[in-house]
Fold:
Amino acid sequence: MKTLALTGSIGMGKSTVAKMFAARGIPVFDADATVRALQGPGGRLVPVIEQRFPGTTREGAVDREALAAAVLGKPHELAALEAIVHPAVHHERTRFIVEHGAAPALLFDIPLLFETGGEAVFDDVIVVSAPAEIQRQRVLARPGMTAEKLDHILARQTPDAEKRARADHVIDTSISLAETEAQVDAILAGLGLSKRA
Structure:
């Protein structure tokens, strides 16, 4: 089984590319979706986060805006949150691997792959990338996003140029969806994986 990591900075089109791999039969582990489930209604991290960050949950779920306000720009608080979240995500990832043990390849969609030093455990690292102006335009179009929030997020992320330099494969998402899909197919073919795994 080949293990593939998919990463890229905010707004680079990672979710779109992950769906393309899934459509080709590659099981996808979405780290962000896992965190949302762990912190969503009834999620097992909700009481732990409320205990450490009082007032950041509401109606049985984490209030993402309140939690962001509690940790953004505060390295000590962010580290405390990561110490709660990362082990839980790792547990879910291990369960995913066991569940899909017969698959020829697995794709792990991990936004902060390089930032957490996680790239070494994967066979190949795929980075999605687009020019900075396209990235900014995409992200600022999201509800509730501000230039200040974006700057805080980008300050925590490894620069795009460094991610591209460290990747085994780079997918350019500034082009058409069909051209992006062709890049996905080329990567799978290069790894000896058929379009329909």
Q: What stands out?
A: The radius of gyration is 17 Å. Residues 75-99 form the longest helix (25 residues). The mean pLDDT is 92. The chain has two domains: 1-27+104-191, 31-99.
